[in-house]
Write a structure and sequence with these properties.
Elements: H1 28-31, E1 41-45, H2 59-73, E2 77-83, E3 91-96, H3 110-121, E4 129-132, H4 139-142, E5 149-152, H5 162-168, E6 174-176, H6 179-182, E7 190-193, E8 212-218, H7 225-235, E9 239-244, H8 253-266, E10 275-277, H9 283-291, E11 293-298, H10 309-315, E12 320-323, H11 328-331, E13 338-341, H12 344-351, H13 359-369, H14 372-392
Parallel strand pairs: 1-2, 1-4, 2-3, 4-5, 5-6, 6-7, 8-9, 8-11, 9-10, 11-12, 12-13
Helix pairs in contact: 2-14, 7-12, 10-13
């Protein structure tokens, strides 16, 4: 069984339902399109660094793309504020012509964070709710308009600077993407946990187990690629690595750390037998890459807020072998859709237990818990709760997303 989400007893903080429960289906009126009285005008603010959806790596942007398209399908009036090279069924309002990570001239993201916030909040009166995926830079503007803002936090929350920040903006409605993510900020105003949904259509189910282990992510010490390489060597099973190289950001300490890690801990092993670096994979190639694997290795060493690659692998029928950090115990049903363990030695041992995992169960788990419809239904409840609270001049209370 999966680990049950943490129950928060504060009356202004949300709880979620049982982790293994299938969320309630949307009402009949919502299935093919929102009824007139239910139709919401939603502004979605996306980061300007990457297009929606991203061409390759980009978890937040991929989730925003799926959410916008599903909300439109359900009959809502959605406006996406994002880079001009984005593709969406929502109304697109460019905040920059080309996503910053691909822009031929610009490198500093801060000016475009500021302009993105300004473009949205100048038009706040046109919407029932603003859904912020840009984080705290939008908080000051959100306080100055009557239109309520809901912020989904996509990053880690255990950094010391975030405690005084969220204390200062104590009235800001927040959505966590796992219960584990919110743990470092027990007093912040989380109105719900809404798990990410993924587009299942390009992720084809592969009923037969493959002959290699897979790693998909970015090259960083926190992602544990060096551990994956050692597990492959110790089990004698080849490892295929689909990873984004570190970014080149002048003056950025994190990118320097990632490059040092690559040169010292990863690059020397890429010439060894059984270790294959295939580079970043596109959406079209991802299904074959994940579906052809015996298992996805997820040996993280940080409090991963969600980890989109886990449900992506499960959708292809591929079980996940993960270290017990962050959201992994919530997303993986230990012994049914993979194994969540504490040490590298236990990861090695889990490889020998893969024969007990039914790949069909992996796919069914994703359809029940991480589909676009499940995610959108959760956000619809959040939107209506904060809109009603704003109309009544109060704070939104608990929103049961998986009830």
């Amino acid at each position: 069984m999966t680990t049950a989400p943490t129950t928060i007893t504060s009356p202004t903080i949300a709880t979620t339902g049982g982790d293994g429960d299938v969320p309630a289906a949307p009402t009949a009126g919502m299935a093919g399109g929102a009824a007139a009285r239910e139709r919401l005008r939603v502004a979605v603010l996306a980061p300007p660094m990457e297009s929606i959806p991203p061409p390759r790596y980009g978890g937040t942007e991929r989730v925003v793309a799926v959410l916008c398209d599903e909300l439109v399908r359900r009959g809502h009036d959605v406006t996406l504020f994002a880079s001009g090279d984005s593709r969406t069924s929502a109304h697109l309002v460019p905040t920059i012509d080309v996503a910053l990570w691909h822009h031929p001239r610009y490198r500093d993201i801060q000016p475009f964070i500021a302009t993105s916030v300004d473009v949205v909040y100048r038009r706040a009166g046109e919407f029932d709710v603003i859904h912020n995926h840009l984080g705290f830079p939008a908080f000051p503007a959100a306080r100055l308009v009557p239109t309520p803002t809901v912020t989904t936090l996509h990053g880690r929350l255990d950094l010391p600077e975030l405690t005084p920040l969220h204390h200062h903006f104590a009235g800001m409605p927040l959505v966590s993407i796992s219960d584990a993510q919110r743990a470092p900020l027990p007093d912040a105003w989380f109105v719900a946990t809404v798990y990410h949904g993924i587009d299942l259509r390009p992720l084809r189910f592969q009923p037969r187990s493959g002959s290699y282990l897979a790693f998909l992510g970015r090259i960083s010490p926190t992602k544990g690629l060096d551990t994956a390489i050692r597990v492959a060597h110790r089990t004698g099973i080849p490892l295929k690595i689909a990873a984004r190289m570190p970014l080149d950001i002048p003056g950025d300490a994190e990118s320097r750390t990632d490059w040092d890690y690559f040169h010292t801990a990863i690059e020397p092993h890429l010439r060894e037998p059984g270790i294959e670096y295939v580079g970043e994979v596109s959406d079209g190639a991802k299904s074959d890459f994940l579906g052809g694997a015996a298992a996805l290795l997820f040996p993280i060493r940080w409090p991963e807020p969600f980890g989109l690659v886990m449900p992506e692998a499960l959708a292809c029928g591929t079980p996940v072998l993960a270290l017990r950090w962050g959201s992994a115990p919530e997303l993986i049903d230990h012994g049914r859709t993979g194994f969540v363990v504490d040490t590298e030695d236990e990861l090695v041992g889990a490889v020998d237990r893969l024969g007990g995992i039914e790949r069909a169960a992996c796919r069914l788990a994703v359809e029940a818990r991480f589909s676009p419809a499940v995610m959108a239904a959760g956000y619809e409840r959040v939107y209506r709760q904060v809109v009603t609270a704003a109309q009544c001049g109060g704070q939104a209370g608990m929103v049961e997303v998986n009830a």
